[in-house]
Amino acid sequence: MANPLLVVDVQNGFLNRYTDHLPDRVAELIERGEHDPILFTRFVNLPDGPYPRYLDWDECMGPPETDIAPVLCQYVHEDRIFTKPGYAGISEELAQYLVGQQFEQISIVGIDTDMCVLKVTMDIFDLNIRPILLVDCCGSTAGLQSHLAGLAVLARNIGAHNLRDAGLSGGMMAAPIHEARST
């Protein structure tokens, strides 16, 4: 039986002090060899979309912000990366792929737990595919509170038993503290 992994929006434009540890964790997870196939989503902000129009946010409209994090590029196959505009969750193309493969469950990791990861996970649930969210391989660009808020909503909507730990956090709930380097 296939054990797919969906990597949601782990791309340059979403890497900050709260999320920049996630690409390495996801790479470590992939290197375990427990998941196949490895699928990716990539968020692209459209110039005429709701973000510029309603939120005055015009980032992530193209490279390098829309590029998958460099450490993960070696795992990306062009036929397994699915572009999505906005909170759209899974694209029709990804939905058809998942249903066509007859996956019974899929592990999910990525950025932002409280936004795109949440929407993608609930969309997969609506496809009648069991989503398994690996909580220590997810995070929010807005920090721990937003990550936890997303987990709370997901626990209620997909079942807390489908939120799991991949064992990659080193015992930390929040992003690792970045210590200032002396020169």
Principal-axes geometry comes out as: globular
| CATH topology value | Rossmann fold
Class in CATH? Alpha Beta
How many H/I helices? 5
Class per helix and strand makeup: alpha/beta
> What summary fits the major beta sheet?
6 strands, parallel
Q: In percent, how much strand structure appears in the residues?
A: 15-25%
Q: What is the second-level CATH architecture?
A: 3-Layer(aba) Sandwich
What multimeric state do the chains show? single chain
Strand order of the largest sheet: 3-2-1-4-5-6
Uncertain stretches: none
Q: Give the % helix.
A: 25-40%
**Could you tell me how far the N terminus lies from the C terminus, measured between alpha carbons in angstroms?**
51 Å
Using the CA coordinates, give the radius of gyration.
Answer: 16 Å
How many structural domains are formed by the residues? Answer: 1
In round numbers, the mean pLDDT is 93
**CATH superfamily membership, which one?**
Isochorismatase-like
Structural topology:
Layout: E1 5-8, H1 22-31, E2 38-43, H2 50-55, E3 81-84, H3 92-100, E4 105-111, H4 116-126, E5 130-139, H5 144-159, E6 163-164
Parallel strand pairs: 1-2, 1-4, 2-3, 4-5, 5-6
